[in-house]
Amino acid sequence: MKSLRRILMASALWVFCAQALPANATLISSGTITFDLNFTSSIPYSVAQTDVVGGSLVAGQILTLRLCPDPNGDGMCGATFLFGPVGAFGAGIVSFVPPGLFDGAFSVQLILNTGTVDITSLTAAVGNAPGAFIASQTLIPFGVPEPAMLALLSIGLAGIGFARRRKLH
């Protein structure tokens, strides 16, 4: 009975650790974050694309992803809106570029109306068709798991192994 209890405790710790692993995210607060980009070395291109991946939004939160033809978020911007509540999300904007609209310098904006949200990835790319990129830039990279969470996961796995080893002897 003690072995079963130990196995259950180790399993519970392992499940807790597996669920507690962070989303490797950058936490953003309400407001506007602007990324100015320079793809002048990639001219000519006919498509600009921006993709965002993140954690969940709560009720009342609105995350806006904007792709603007000029630095500092100026010009006629295209936008994608994500309305909370929503679980983990992925969204993007594909903008077909009329000749002369983009001169290689443009901006990407993330706008959050309230609270905070975890953003795990934000990329911008240019190309000749959606998905056929000439160049891309990672604005918010995927992160690495926190060492403390990996340590907890390792302890849980070691506990399972130890409980099993004691059961066999």
Could you describe the 3D structure shown?
Strands 1, 2, 3, 4, 5, 6 and 7 form a 7-stranded antiparallel beta sheet that branches. Helix 1 runs antiparallel to helix 2. With 169 residues, the chain is α+β, with helices and mostly antiparallel strands. Strand 6 and strand 7 form a beta hairpin.
Q: Helix-strand pattern, N to C?
A: HEEEEEEEH
Q: Tally of extended strands? A: 7
> How would you describe the shape?
elongated
Helix content: 10-25%
Number of helices: 2
Alpha-carbon Rg, integer = 22 Å
Terminal Cα span: 15 Å
Structural class: alpha+beta
Question: Which residues form runs of ≥5 with pLDDT under 50?
Answer: 12-23
Largest sheet: 7 strands, antiparallel
Give the DSSP E fraction (strand runs of 2 or more residues). 35-45%
Average pLDDT metric: 75
Sum up the structure in keywords:
2 helices, alpha+beta, 7-stranded antiparallel β-sheet, 45% strand, 169 residues
Summarize the structure.
The chain is an alpha+beta fold and 169 residues long. 24% of the residues lie in helices and 45% in strands.
Provide the fold topology.
Layout: H1 2-20, E1 26-38, E2 47-54, E3 62-68, E4 78-83, E5 89-96, E6 105-129, E7 132-140, H2 147-168
Antiparallel strand pairs: 1-6, 2-5, 2-6, 3-4, 3-6, 6-7
Helix pairs in contact: 1-2
